[in-house]
Structures are given as structure tokens and as C-alpha cells.
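Sequence only, no structure available. Ideas?
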Amino acid sequence: MTRNDILEAAAQVFRKKGFHGASMSDIAEAVNLKKASLYHHVASKQEILLALLDRALELLTERIAPLARQSSPAEAKLRQMIHAYLNLLAENADLAAVLLFEHRSLEPRQHARHIPNRDRFEKLWLDIVLEGVKAKKFRVSNPALAVRAMLGTLNWTLTWYRANGQMSMEEIADQIADLQFKGLSAK
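Reply:
I predicted one. C-alpha cells follow.
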């Protein structure tokens, strides 16, 4: 039994039951351990939650940061980032669900530790939007709000996307990217 096995199982349990509905016994049962044995690997649910949030942001940053650093135009980078982000959410649905929906369960000390990591990830997106504004490719009056709205749209996809649905994640990513760039305007 490894810490990684415990974290993967905890992500599944948290996604299914929510952080507050899940117990350490549920996590122990998911990895075939006694509850007391689980405490040899982790100290608390809060520790597990923070580790999962760190893991999710690390995974996302590893995938998104190289795209943001490319020499491509901002629109091309942003489109690739949207595709990569949605694919990563779909490939890691349990971990993504914990990141997107359970971060509010962090206690104040852990929350304060988590926020800078989240902000660094959001800054990758903000920098690309600002780059597009500077190049006069994007017209955005509030870039930070635009990034939060875009990430909110992408994040919510996790709640309704089905791998066997009518559209692939690639098709969804293309349509969301088009919506971001063109809006609803008929122009």
C-alpha cells in the first residue's frame, strides 16, 4: 500500500461522497486497510485533501505551462490550453472534482497554503489573455474576470461531460474556444 494508492482512493471517495460526507474509514475501506493502519500513512483528511489539491494543480501546471510559454500567438496558445485543460479534467475526473469542488473544505491554514498555488495556475491564463490584449487580438475590459469566467466554463464541463456522450472532449473544447473568441455575437 502506497501513499499514492491512498490518494487515488481518497479522490474517488471524495468525489462520490464529498469531503464532509467521506470518513477516514471510507478511505481505509477503499484501499483494504484498517482505519488505524491508514493513520500510519496520513495524519488526517485535511492532509489528504491538501495533497490532492497540490497534486491536481501540479498536474495541470505541468501540462499548461509549456503551452503558455510557446512562441505562438495568444489565440493559438489559449486554444491549446483549453484543449489540454479539458482533456486533463476528463482523464483525471476524480482528482479534478476534488480540486474544483472540495477546496472550500480546507481549514484556514491549509487554505492559505493552497491559494498561492491556485493563483500561479490562474496567472498562466491571465498572462495569455493580457498578451492577446497587448497584441490587439483580444478586446477585454477586465482580463482577470475574463479568465475566471473562462475557467468557470471549463470547470463546469466536468459536471455534465460524458465520455460516451454526443460530443467528444475535443469537439467540446473547440466549441468552447470558439465561444471564448467569438462570443455570441452574429458579427
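The mean pLDDT is 94.
Hope that gets you unstuck.
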